[in-house]
Write a structure and sequence with these properties.
15 helices; about 325 residues; single chain
Amino acid sequence: MVSNLTLVLALAGLATLCVGGVAYSLLYSRIETEERVGRRLDRIQTQTVSVDPARGRVVDAARRRRSVQDTLKELEEKQKAKSRESNSPPLILRLEQAGLDWSRQTFWIISVVTGVVLAALSWLVGAPLLAVAGIGIAGFLGLPRWFVNFMRKRRMNLFVTHFADAIDVIVRGVKAGLPLNDCIRIIASEAAEPVRSEFRKISESQQALGIPLGDAVGRMPERVPVPEATFFAIVIAIQQKAGGNLAEALGNLSRVLRERRKMKDKITAMSTEAKASAAIIGSLPFAVVIIVYLTSPSYILLLFTHPTGNLILAASLLWMFIGIMVMRKMINFDF
């Protein structure tokens, strides 16, 4: 009886071992996978501190690179839209870019007065009615706009001339530990015009309206549509969104602006002879007309008094205008 009980227990133990062995063999891969995952989690948790900063720096660099790329793409789209608008800006914006505090009404009043005065002067001189009307229309539509464009171009050139010095002030201030806002206020109070007024508008936009620095600087290319202002706005926008060494970025920008200025001066020096030749060729017909009028007035006045002379004079002025535009296109260089 005892031997039978022992045999039963032995068989039961052997059966249990067999079932356990079969179950272990079937579940071995799953158990091994769980153990491997556990050991990996333990290694991650007990990883040394010296490896984490390196991996963190790689992740931060990749994240910053993606942020810079997204910022550049966004700024590129904005600048393309602004460049399309800057080709024909509204009258108010053009007056602001020229540094004139005229209103739209003031501009049109000056245009009307200029047209009337020029038409009256030409009529008093004895010009025919057709010429008087043409001179009046030119004085009304042409001369005031030419003056605004001249002042606008002059202001842009002055801004480009002094802008690199303003950036150098920001670079030295940032290296000395001053905040960027303080550097902008220093330029707004001590720089030369028109850089001073533009940076004053940036500072006032921050203080009075609470506009972020990146947005306030981003509005400057609208008032000063030059590549230098666009470069500065891009650098500030990237620094505000992605961080980085602002002093180094602005130092590189200052160096680029000075190299562009050197290139522009070199192109101006090389094209001076062509511009002088074009000016002489363009002024010769007018000089000949004045000399002939002083020597034999009756001979040249036929162009102004006779209908056929008026037609010849109009055709000559048209061809002169086409020639001047062609020479202007040949001697102007974009870079």
